[in-house]
Amino acid sequence: MIYNDFRSKVTPSLADILSLGGRIVSGSWPFPEVADAREIKVHVMGTATTDMLLRCVAVACAQEGLRPKVSQSLYGAFMQDVLNPASELYSIKPDIVLIVSDWHSLVADIPPSASNDEVALIVDAKVSEILSIWKRLTETLGVKIVHQFPPPPPYRLTGLAEKFLPVSYSNQLRSLFEKLWNAETYGVQMLDLEQFALENGSKSTFAPRVWYGAKLPIENSGLPGYVPLLRSALRGALNTVKKALVLDLDNTLWGGVIGDDGVDGIKLGTSDARSEAFSAFQAYVKSLAARGVILAVCSKNDPEIAKLGFAHIASILKYEDFAAFECSWGDKASGLRKIAKNLNIGLDSLVFVDDNPVECGLVQQELPMVATVHLDGDPADFVTKIEDGYWFQFQKYSREDFSRTGAYSARAAALVEQSSATDLPTYLKGLEMVGMVLRPEENQIERVVQLGQKTNQFNLLTRRYDEETIRAYLANEENIVFACSLKDKFGDHGLVSVLIGEAKGKELRIVEWVMSCRVFSRTFEQFIINEVIAASVARGITKIVGSYQATAKNAVVSELYAQLGFVLVDENLWELDLTQSPAAVETFVALASS
Amino acid sequence: MSVAPDRIRKRLARVFMIMFPAKSGEEIPEATMENTDGWDSLATLSLFTLTDEEFGIKLGLDLIGETKSFHKLEALVIEKVG
């Protein structure tokens, strides 16, 4: 695909995201004509499956003229990566981190009878946790942060009453968002997907089936509309925001051609639907100007005649509203260059809108850094066409920009200082984890088999044992077969790890060890091995042997046995000598009282 | 309205190439998860979305686990529009 054509798309296609995005994610660069594009490292992490968002990040960066190198944290390992200075995140040293939060991770189930103050306390704790993450990432990595917040769940329960119920998920999320917005945000770009859901259709874009099926935060069909939103956040993070809206005149700011129809002949005002739509568009443009967007005109016209349009009795915009007024018969690329020069801003901070596809095409080819929006068809849709690009979305809050009182900020800063989650051990302790290892019951066999079949990352040998094999191991009482469950303060994760050790005389050979990725790096693996050691000693076993078989996806456990105190005795073969009474490895998981 | 099987195959092969551009036209009909680099369950989900768009159908997510080859995907589409 030709780069300029791709870059000029306001909304990329799903095929662009899956195909081009996929190629960029895998490390190739499909645009040889811009081999020297500025490189940028973006890391994506959160409480959802981020693979598809990674492709969106790749496309968004490429459309912004950047050559991205993208990476992601393992599903569910987000907090561990943030808090552990030895995690991959810290070796990658990304320029930008995209944090993706789903609503399940942000709200609490609070009894509906709870008071406003009780709800506020719970929300404040979550605010504090998020601020501490932002603080840590900013201070230790110097990274720019984009944090994506979800829409509330797509059901209304008691309807209107829910809007006024403090404990409702919607109110918790709204309160959280507001408190974070008012806090010192370390320059974080906050993405509000509640508004996105309204605009793109909550039922289709955030259908529960994709969450239950794959923990995807957005349905694939919603990704094209998400890319421009993401681009706006990237611009905010990189300080490359759009500053000026450059408008054509005829059939853009009014209906008709001022040179032919005269000031009384152009369509503006309330006499018909078309005139009303052009007036509404002018009102929208005027509102943008009131929010600090610079307005300019770039039109093929005689300047004196062109100015007459703003003398129309119904014209909301006035000639004085424009900081630059470039009317000539020259090409529009030259006009835009002059405007940028006069305003002393970069061409990449211009958004150019025109009803003429040829003019738009020329600008896209000549000046790909200018965002170009083709306003064709019904003028009633012009506002939406500009809004689709999120060109003037400023998600960044800074005290300089707004004169709000400092009370909230001070309180939020104090909360950060109080926050408990400032290092990994404190965080893990705070999870209040309780583990249980038991020989599986009959009704757990299916889950034991399923874990081995499905788990790719924390799977040391990837042997994919079937039910028959598992039952054969269970048949020998000397073998250790552990079905391991974990609970924490947020809930019960259920059976999330399986370890099978085959006893051969005085030796225990670990033949399967798998763990659901949503719980590893929480010292649950240390907890399990301590239990294995205790059970082995009770059986008179003197040596535990473990091996690791590398696959494309299990590199995360390549050093597991070393971390657990085993000694490498052969290639990928590790041993733990129990005759030396090895000390228990440190874990923050407590044994469940039976 | 039904679509001829050879037309379905051509359109589905186009969809398939978006996800797996390294596959040649000849290889696509025989493609499976086993012989196609990068074909995992998320890729199947993406194939479903693109197929839904191409044919104006809705393939249920419950079918993701069993869709492990081009043939199977083709059979699902034929069932809906063939």
UniProtKB/TrEMBL annotation, chain A:
The keyword Hydrolase applies. One of its GO terms (molecular function) is hydrolase activity. Residues 41-224 form the BF1531-like N-terminal domain. It comes from the Bacteria. Keywords: Hydrolase. This is HAD family hydrolase.
Automatic annotation (TrEMBL), chain B:
InterPro entries: ACP-like_sf. It comes from Acetobacter sacchari. This is Acyl carrier protein. It comes from the Bacteria.
